[in-house]
Amino acid sequence: MIEFEKIRWKNFLSTGNNFTELALNGHATTLVIGENGSGKSTFLDALTYGLFSKPFRKINKNQIINSVNNKACLVEIEFKIGSKNYLIRRGIKPTVFEIYVDGELINQDSKAKDYQEKLEKQILKLTFKSFTQIILLGSSSFLPFMKLPAAHRREVIEDLLDIQIFSIMNQILKERYSENKTNISDNNQILNLNLEKIDVQRKYIQEVKEINSDKVVDIRKLIETTNQEMSDIDLKVMALQAEVKSLSENIKDRDNLVSERSKLQQIKISIESMIGKIGSDINFFVNNTNCPVCKQDIEEDHRVEILHNRESVKDSKENGLRELNDHLEDLSVKLAA
């Protein structure tokens, strides 16, 4: 889990040459309030720019740097993941992009694009799209999950559950399938060429028969050789067709398993959410004897009946969740085979 500790910026948008700094780890929850134009949105823009090289709002890159100073634009973000402390420094005029882990600068030999990819995939494990869909939700630009394009929804879910490997595996299988289709097409062309050769040979034999009967024996040997080649080719074609059929079935079965597991994981999230809600209800009726709406006392019999009902529903959901987890584990074993 990412724990943001501190962010500071200068010469960023409308801020001047002195650092504006916010401490985000002073309390369990940090509330940022202020009048219009006081810099609340600038804080969000600085956060996403520091992490992903693009502001939260739709702002051109040449508008990011302060138009008065027009230099020394810099954003620094400190955060913690597990036991490691990170510092990200990103700026314009001069261009700056540095990643520090526990005070040590990560090797910058790679290109900026590869350096950014290392930050997103190995450290944050989030892309800009996922970050603004899961962590940073703005009322002006937030798009509900179900309204996202299918590819973006898949990307968000894969980042959230850390299951990008299945998309990679699916792409590899598609490439192999495409390669096999190409091989089959090439072999069919070879087969057609050989069939044409056979046809030519047969015509040639007929012509030779009409011209010289003495060459019949030699021509028959040639026919036998050609027929053997045809038989060998037919066997190869049959073997290739069987292999293609087997590969197609394996790909289809795997796609079905991946789809089923994705759906079951969504159901699992929904069940866990319901169990959490029911648990909250049980805790309320265990610890409270007054109605939260009308402030009147809840009759003991009614309270006991509600608790019994909630606990029964919770037990049922938890049993279903255990069965669902077992089924998901079976699917994972099948996919790993």
TrEMBL record:
UniProt-listed Gene3D superfamilies: Helix hairpin bin, P-loop containing nucleotide triphosphate hydrolases
GO MF annotations for this entry? ATP hydrolysis activity
What start-end ranges are recorded for coiled-coil regions in this protein? 223-250
One GO BP annotation of this record:
double-strand break repair
Tell me where in this chain the Rad50/SbcC-type AAA domain is found.
Answer: 6-207
User: Does the record bear Transcription regulation in its keywords?
Assistant: no
Task: Name the InterPro entries for this protein.
Answer: P-loop_NTPase, Rad50/SbcC_AAA
Q: Which residues cross the membrane?
A: none
Arranged from A to Z, the UniProt key words for this protein are: Coiled coil
Keyword Translocase found: no
Report the protein name in the record: Rad50/SbcC-type AAA domain-containing protein
From what organism does this protein derive?
marine metagenome
